Amino acid sequence: MTFHDEDDDMNTKSMETGELSVSHASTGSSSFARSETRRVTRSKYIVAGVIFVAAVLVGSLTFVFARNQEEDDFETQFGEYAVEIVDIINQEANSALAAANSLSVAITTFALSSSAVWPDVTVPDFELRGFHNNILSKSLQVSLAPLVRADQKQEWEIYAQQNEEWIDEGLAVAMERELTDNTEEKSDSIEDFLWRFAEGDSGTSVVQNSEGTNLGGVNYFAPIWQQSPAPHDTQIVNYDILSHPILQRLFSTMWNSVQPVFSEATDLSFIYEGAIEDDSEHPHTYVLHPVFGSFVDNNGSYKSEDIVASLITVLPFDQLLLDMIPEGVNGIDIVMENTCNQHFTYSINGPVATFVGYGDHHDPDYDYMGFAVEFGDHSISAHTEESCNYMIHVYPTSIFEEEYHSNKPVVYTVVVVSVFVFTALVFLLYDYFVLLRQRKVMEAARRTNKIVTALFPANVRDRILKDAEEQDEGDRQHKRGFGFGAKAQLKDFVQDDNVLENGNSAFDSKPIADLFPDATVMFADIVGFTAWSSVREPTQVFSLLETVYHAFDEIARSRRVFKVETVGDCYVAVAGLPEARKDHAVVMARFARDCLHRMNDLTKKLELTLGPDTGDLSMRIGLHSGPVTAGVLRGDKSRFQLFGDTVNTASKIESSGSRNRIHLSTETASLLEAAGKGHWLKKREDVIRTKVKGDMQTYWLEVKAPSIAPTGSSASDGQTEESISPTEAKRMEQEKAAKKEEKAKSKADMDEDKLRRLVDWNSDVLARLLRQIVAHRNATKRLKGTVSSSTPAKLEIKSGGTVIDEVKEIIELPEYDPLAAQYQEDPQSIDLGEAAQKQLRDYVMLVATFYRDNPFHNFEHASHVTMSVVKLLSRIIAPDVNSKNANNHDHAATLHDHTYGITSDPLTQFACVFAALIHDTDHSGVPNAQLVKEGAEVAKIYDGKSVAEQNSVDIAWDLLMHKNYTDLRHLICETDEEMRHFRELVVNSVMATDIVDKELKALRNARWEKAFAEENQVDSRENNNRKATIVIEHLIQASDIAHTMQHWHIYRKWNERLFHEMYDAWRNGRSEKDPSEFWYNGEIGFFDFYIIPLAKKLKECGVFGVSSDEYLNYAQKNRAEWEAQGHQVVEKLVEKYTAEYANHQVRLDDIQDADNVPLRSRMFRSDTLSDDEGFLAEVEKQIDDEDGDLSEKSQEDLVARASSRLTRGASKEKL
């Protein structure tokens, strides 16, 4: 009899929560408070106004002071630079005059010492003398022009012709100094006559036939004679400078003043043209310096008649203004002004002087800062109306000023204002906190009340708060007592500590505890949780518990059931307290039913994310009613707890129950019957035995729940086979026999449901890895600038060969690309496409159908291996890497190196998981040796080597290569190279599961010695690839027998299935030995010689982190447990399966009932069919009869694979 929800229409009400109340203040107090508030508010505004005004005034003064300081620095620094500039310019000008004067004195000295008569004077080494003059004076050239009287003209022309060799000598000296690249001598001889320009200074040269220029009553010519640097164009020699108006004016001024004369800024470049490279458009001044025929005494002075020649020096202002100020000082303008009404401007930036242009171009905004001084020493140069006297004007620019303007005034102002603002904020915050103090206290009280409400019932909470209030009041009164000073406080504190140390209670109030005479307690335990959690990640374990317990909490709130606590996977709840209610047993029964249903729903949904066997988890619930003592056991982390015999009995009722059932005590059953719910109850046929109460009669609460059949071992946490009494076992067998037909159909439905869930989970795992492959590939293509290939990848498999021939000693993994890792997008954002995802699920479903319905080597085993591979891949780590301190890219690179490239290649990880999925495809349920012994066609095809493994690879690969899976293949492998790499990984991984073949074992051992032997530790790419190959093979080997290195219940479950499979083979005549004869010792040897050594190798690989220790520990524990219990386990297995055969429950007998067995259980039992044609006909018939679970493409593939399987043995060449 079952019960439904027709009695659920009971009135419910929410638990009341206590609220702290505050009494209303009197009217007078309110008025006083409002008045005080207004005064305080006014005071706040006054303080705020004062702070604001002070901030504005002080900030403004700070800004003005800082800005003025910068202006003072600017003006002071400019003044210093201006003085320095004019001093340097005047020094350069005086140096030029002094150098010319020295050369003039040297010429006079030579003439006197050689008794030479002017104008017939040729100064020896004039090139060198002039060179040093030019360096000292920064002039471009110096020329000597002697005065020739009109009556000496013809004589001079002859003299010049006879003494022109000075030009060649000068050119030779210049060439030696590398002053010129011209190695040729002068092109022509000098003119044999004095000459002038026909028109001005740019016409053709003509003979100077005039009478000369009158100087002091005598007519003179002043031909250019010697020059340094020597002229390349000799035509300039004998040019009469007095024929040029500017030079004539300057010469006359010099004659009259008997002092050097400066010209205006003009272009007389024809004098030195060819000998000097210069920009003649920039300002130049020409200085005429007198040369005297003799020296005067100290008291005498020169007269005009003493002048016998003139020196003409060319001074470029570009050279004079260089190196005025140091590097880094920029933006100073120099304006040169002369008495000839000329202005020209230079900009000084560090040591460089840049000509701006003729005219005054300085910024008039800085006129007030202009600095002016005369150019040169007036005492040594002529200053007449005819001469051009220069003035130097120095001005700053905005560029120079900006160097002294900064954001410091603003910063200082902001800092000062910020101090005031901060002060104001401190006052405001202080006031704010004072105003909110009471609100915060009340809010804290409300939050505390909420937390206490969640942990304790309302009445318990109220008592806790009341006791705390009384304690605080007592403390306050004690502190107000006489003599409460610093010493008294210290004394009380020490005494309180002593009380605690002496073990006396620190709680003076009465303990918080009550007796509730009528309550129902529920214990709900997750069956199989410990074994399930042992193969999961911690995050997965907590994900399950949080999801399930949250759902239970919601049901508890709606049913007004009080949740007491959760201990591990046990959920404890109670009804009837803290609020007493008469229907506590009915409410708890409904709550237990809801939890049972909700648990079954959640586990099915969570299996997609948490992996295989999650859907097999279920609840075992026990209920007992009676008096309960409940209260708060005070101390650290106090909690509301239940005590008493009722709680202990409820725990015992739960532990002696069965999975997916609700177990009731007699007391609870009586209450339900009294409430008119007797039709919910079913009396348990046997009794449970307890040490204290002896035999107890119990009941089952009949619940119409979703059909859940236990898979594998029925043992669960805390319940072993011994917990089920013989009477209960007999009843279960009778019920099973009575409902055989119904359960056969139900089992078939459950098998198909479980198949779909396993297919969904495997598809989801592969899809996640596919997204990583696509993300990695996209990043690589983006860096290389390549595009996706539309041509499907191909792989030519050698004709006539077998899979085992493709096993590689070393598989080469891709090199690590840090840029690709850096720019890789989030794999979760990758869209695989609807077509590819559908093909992936169809492929996984098709692979599942190719697994035979063996007890061990079946699709569930493949999913278990897949889950272990995924877990080991997720546990791969790199030691000594602090991921918090190292960036992600450094961590990824270190991880790549340490794991030999496995973690950085998604295709390798996908291949490992893919190999785990297909590694036992079409396994016949007997070892390879038996197939060889039977002479099976498949054994002949593969020459009796690794028959099952090679068969699995061929079937799975042929399926993947089918045209229906083009999109899927393109996602896995886009290029032929990727396809080759993928094939190598799959072949090596699947072939590694053959641990019996001696040749493969020898190859693996030799490879291990090469890679991990201490003397062979060579850090090379080849050795790293060898290590990677070993790690991949050990990964799938460990996963293939992972049940031996997991929790004892997991090991027992799969150990029994393997025994069942081998026992079937023996009973069907496909094995010579009864497995029970060697099972115990065989497992011991298997642990000692394979499992434990393999677990140690996992640890020696050094890449699996804590998983290697976990696997080794479980292997050693299971070995010890098997040694202790193995004999009893084998006896029970023999008893169980002997009884099944005696009752005609053998699996082969079930095959005859074809209408109730799913397609995947009937397709590949070729050993039960008489011929191949009958097998193919059976396959096609069953596809026609199928209920539409498989798509048309999958059905076509089934027929194609079945046909291929029938013909593969015909000839080896057809493979």
How is the secondary structure organized here?
Layout: H1 27-113, H2 126-137, E1 142-146, E2 148-149, H3 153-162, H4 166-176, E3 195-197, E4 205-207, E5 213-215, E6 218-221, E7 226-228, H5 245-257, E8 261-262, E9 284-292, E10 307-316, H6 317-320, E11 330-338, E12 342-349, E13 352-358, E14 371-374, E15 390-396, H7 398-402, H8 408-455, H9 458-479, H10 486-501, E16 513-527, H11 529-533, H12 538-559, E17 562-567, E18 570-575, H13 584-610, E19 618-632, E20 640-643, H14 645-655, E21 661-665, H15 666-674, E22 681-683, E23 688-690, E24 694-696, E25 698-701, H16 726-738, H17 740-784, H18 818-822, H19 834-849, H20 859-875, H21 888-898, H22 906-918, H23 928-934, H24 937-941, H25 947-960, H26 966-972, H27 976-991, H28 998-1012, H29 1021-1040, H30 1048-1067, H31 1075-1101, H32 1106-1142, H33 1147-1151, H34 1159-1162, H35 1172-1185, H36 1192-1207
Parallel strand pairs: 19-21
Antiparallel strand pairs: 1-7, 1-10, 2-6, 3-4, 5-6, 8-9, 9-10, 11-12, 11-15, 12-13, 14-15, 16-18, 16-19, 17-18, 19-20, 21-25, 22-25, 23-24
Helix pairs in contact: 1-2, 1-8, 12-13, 13-17, 17-19, 17-20, 17-22, 19-26, 19-36, 20-22, 20-29, 22-27, 25-27, 27-29, 28-29, 29-31, 30-32, 31-32, 35-36
Question: Could you characterize the architecture of this molecule?
Answer:
- With 1215 residues, the chain is α+β, with helices and mostly antiparallel strands.
- It folds into three domains: 90-402, Beta-Lactamase (2-Layer Sandwich); 513-710, Nucleotide cyclase, GGDEF domain (Alpha-Beta Plaits); 747-786 and 801-1214, 3'5'-cyclic nucleotide phosphodiesterase, catalytic domain (Catalytic domain of cyclic nucleotide phosphodiesterase 4b2b, Orthogonal Bundle), CATH 1.10.1300.10.
- The protein has 36 helices and 25 strands.
- The strands form six sheets. Strands 16, 17, 18, 19, 20, 21, 22 and 25 form an eight-stranded mixed β-sheet that branches.
- A hairpin with a 3-residue loop joins β11 and β12.
- α12 runs antiparallel to α13 (584-610) and α28 (998-1012) crosses α29.
- The longest helix is centred in the N-terminal third of the chain and has 87 residues, at 27-113.
- The two termini are 60 Å apart.
- The model is unreliable at 1-29, 180-184, 481-506, 705-724, 878-886, 1144-1176, 1186-1190 and 1203-1215 (pLDDT under 50).
- Residues 728-751, 1190-1199 have a biased composition (Basic and acidic residues).
- It is found in: Membrane.
